[in-house]
Amino acid sequence: MFSEYRIHPALLHLLYCLLCSAGEEVVRLQELEGNTVTIHTGLTGVQSDAHILWFYRSENLDTKIVISLVFKGETNTEYPSERFRDRLQLNRTSGSLTITNISREDSGVYKLHIITGMSSVWSFSVDVYAPVSKPIIGNQSEKRSVSLRESCSPLCSVENGKDVSLSWYEEKERISSISSSDSSERLYLPLNITNPNCSTYTCVADNPVSSQTTQLDITNICYKSGTKVPRDLSKSLAAVLTSVGLIVALLILFVWIWKKKTNQQGKKYISICFISCLSLLVLKTASEWQKTSARWWCTQLKGCLLCSAGEEVVRLQELEGNTVTIHTGLTGVQSDAHILWFYRSESIEIRIVNSQIIRGEIITDYYSERFRDRLQLNRNSGSLTITNISRDDSGVYKLNIITGISSVWSFSVNVYAPVSKPIIRDDSEKRSVSLRESCSPLCSVENGKDVNLSWYEEKERISSISSSDSSERLYLPLNITSPDYSTYTCVAANPVSNWTTQMNITNICIKAGK
Q1: Which residues constitute the domain of residue 56?
Q2: Residue 336 pLDDT greater than 60, yes or no
Q3: Which pTM was predicted?
Q4: CA–CA distances in Å: residue 143 to residues 140, 215, 222, 228, 367
Q5: Same domain, 318 and 405
């Protein structure tokens, strides 16, 4: 019953704009099974010593299918995947990948990773289709005489498949169409001709890469008995109820994830997932590019629960000058794993460690001048040790371990200088305690990243101050109206260190002033 609905062109354009404006750009390819396909990158003159990797993802599993690197001046290219055995060819000049005799099982996302001084990634979504079958036209009604002015009901059918649609055309105008996501059931599309005339009717079966046409022979179909195909109303009703149920479930999932997601980029991603899935369920007659885009985004809902929490980032706070190890929590990393560490500061990502097995030999390179002679990799755990760490080394460190799949961990490291010792002096004229007048000690410290200054009476904090302007010294007064035997201390602290100065009431409040 959805075959009569069509999406408004303006809404299609709006959804297209939303899809194009978010997330990592993914180039989409549609190919015919059995062909030789080249995934063109659009690049020319890739750096000659670049490390080139291709990954294939199907059902959320990344598999490394091409490894190409230059070692001791010699280019080494390996194709480790059994799936693509003897069917892959890399072009190192452009990074393009050629796949021979491509099959429907090869559909998925292909990711190109080019590593030079930095790491760059391109993604390509490839959908492979079988050639569509030729449609068959029969008559679903009993034989009748046209002279009786009774209707003739040709029935067109075709073997269903991925993104197959079946349509009736009168001359060159499409007058009806049908498709179904259930590829196990044959597609049927009737045509009711109340007054057969000299018009030409054709039935067309197509998918994004092929089409087949059968022309209606009115004489044979409308004067001969055909096969009567009963309509199954219960199936139609079940399809409607199923679609409504899926829409309600999607809406509940969308609201739940939206509440958990706090950043705007994440909310936009979830919104597009939801809109695309909704359009795929309701708008059965959307154009092919729209259905392809919607299907790709809909598959991303498998990962939306994970996306709602964002990529987990381990946060570390360290003291300047120390030797710091970024522990991964892993043990027994695969011995032939390719291990990469990247460092990101102010949105610039650089490769700092590259460790791999080449011809049975472990080769570990430390590239960055910033960390010269200060890095040490543990290949058993993937952990990275940094000696004499400085505040300038603060940033995000990303570990990428590549075996049969690619896995990534992120660590946010903040490095702090030791906090200075606070100084206490009297901010008022010196007075005698016997006069019962107030005493005003003033505590101060050199400001810095995340430094705060606090007054304590015994063990209770009674006041505190901090400032994001680290160029100005921090000052915190304490007003004592009646000095007694309480102990007052001033504490300066940041996340990794602290200094305490105890106030001497006799020197600060009783000593005669000017």
Answers
A1: 34-129
A2: yes
A3: 0.47
A4: 9, 20, 7, 11, 82
A5: yes
Q: Are residues 284 and 355 in the same domain?
A: no
Boundary-marking domain end, from 377, 400, 416: 416
Mean pLDDT of 134-158: 69
* Long-range pairs of 81-85 with CB within 8 A, sequence gap ≥ 24: 81/56, 83/56, 84/56
Whether 308 contacts 271, CB under 8 Å = no
Q: Are residues 322 and 398 in the same domain?
A: yes
Q: Which of 196-200, 239-243, 412-416 has the lowest mean pLDDT?
A: 239-243
The answer to whether 227 and 138 are in contact (CB under 8 A) is yes
The answer to whether residue 238 sits within a structural domain is: no
Q: Who wins on pLDDT, 443 or 248? A: 443
Number of domains in the chain: 5
Confidence of residue 307 (pLDDT cuts 50, 70, 90): very low
pLDDT tens column, 255-295: 665 555 444 444 544 555 555 555 555 544 444 444 444 44
Q: How confident is the model at residue 510 (pLDDT cuts 50, 70, 90)?
A: low
Mean predicted lDDT score pLDDT of the chain: 78
Which among 463, 405, 509 has a CA at the least distance from the CA of 60?
Answer: 405
For residue 8 the two structure tokens come to 């408004």
User: Is residue 27 a part of any domain in this protein?
Assistant: no
Based on the fold, state whether residues 112 and 65 are members of the same structural domain: yes
The verdict on 267 and 335 lying in the same domain is no
Same domain membership, residue 404 and residue 372: yes
- Side-chain-side CA neighbours of 60 within 13 Å: the count stands at 7
CATH number at residue 95: 2.60.40.10
Residue 42: which of 75, 91, 78, 84 has the closest Cα?
91
409 lies in the same domain as 433:
no
CA distance 185 to 236: 13
Last residue of a domain, one of 129, 160, 176: 129
Are 263 and 227 in the same domain? no
Q: Is residue 451 part of a domain?
A: yes
Residue 69: both structure tokens together: 């690197």
DSSP state letters, 492-514: EEETTEEEEEE--HIIIIIS---
> What single DSSP character describes residue 148?
G
State the pLDDT at residue 56. 92
Q: Are 381 and 325 in contact (CB under 8 A)?
A: no
Name the nearest CA neighbour of 317 among 383, 225, 415, 231.
415
Identify the pLDDT of residue 275.
Answer: 59
Count, residues in the chain: 514
Q: Exposed, middle or buried: residue 274 (CB in 10 Å: 0-12, 13-18, 19+)? A: buried
- Which residues, in sequence order, are CB contacts of 17 under 8 Å at separation 6+? none
